[in-house]
């Protein structure tokens, strides 16, 4: 290949652009220092049953920062790295366990939100605005569109995604990515409902759940006989619903498993091998009905303090809160990773955090 001055300048410009992105990320950082004492007080035991999952000499670490809204972590054991979305910056980031680097993996990324690794080690992604589709990144880097419409109408804004052991892909389709200009572009939804979809390996797309208002995070129980789904705009609070999964891929027996407090927000989550739900948690933005005087102003304050709510809430299979991992930022999503599958990665507002635990992801 012949190298030209124009090519060198173009390459230098691309390198500078990536450096500017990561440099901007560093500039947005705020001081974070891991706790120096063991056990880390950020890991709170709400029920004695959670004690077995805490590693006494493990502490919360900040691995990277500078994102505007971090989402969709997915771990790839073959390469020892994690990918996550930075939605407003329209990019996917990569954390490499081998050297600790935190770099741009893809930009632009079509406002990617949820990501997952399929059973063949490929990246599947929810592009939740503009393109509004689910894609798969092949081993050669090419991108295959798996779904972008249902019954002749465009999807709303694919959000979170999980791959079942039979290679079916399940994803939620709320309207978040088309509600405004922050995480993409405002658009009119074409679907009459906000659904949970099941996509078979042969390309058949089915709406398996149509009666949840803006479904968000989803995950299967360890035996895959139950599907759990967050209802983002539940009444009166955000909830996690449990469904029985039938052999034909349909679901039934809708049961409310978890009801968030009136100030809490349930988001993305994962299930461990014991069936516990590790859920991204934080303030839902609800305001007190009456204002309080702050200085010389009357201000409607949040119900509950974000500093008390931000982190990961752990529920047992019966929906009882048993543990809490306090973070300095609201956690939107998480996944298990690491060489032994016991490193909890948490995408939290501007940053990526991690904590080693005595738990392993179910899938």
Number of domains: 2
| Number of helical elements | 2
CATH-defined topology of the largest domain: Neuraminidase
Query: First CA to last CA: what distance?
Result: 44 Å
Shape: globular
Describe this structure in words.
- Its cofactor is Zn(2+).
- This is Gluconolactonase.
- Pfam families: SGL (PF08450).
- GO terms for molecular function: hydrolase activity; metal ion binding.
- Keywords: Hydrolase, Metal-binding, Signal, Zinc.
- With 363 residues, this protein is mainly beta.
- It has 2 domains: 136 residues, no CATH class; 150 residues, 6 Propeller (Neuraminidase).
- Helix content is 7%, strand content 42%.
- It has 2 helices and 29 strands.
- The strands form 8 sheets. A 5-stranded antiparallel sheet has the order 1-26-25-22-21. A 4-stranded antiparallel sheet has the order 2-29-28-27, with no helix packed on it. Strands 3-4-5-6 form a 4-stranded antiparallel sheet.
- The longest helix has 23 residues.
- The termini are far apart.
- The N terminus is likely disordered.
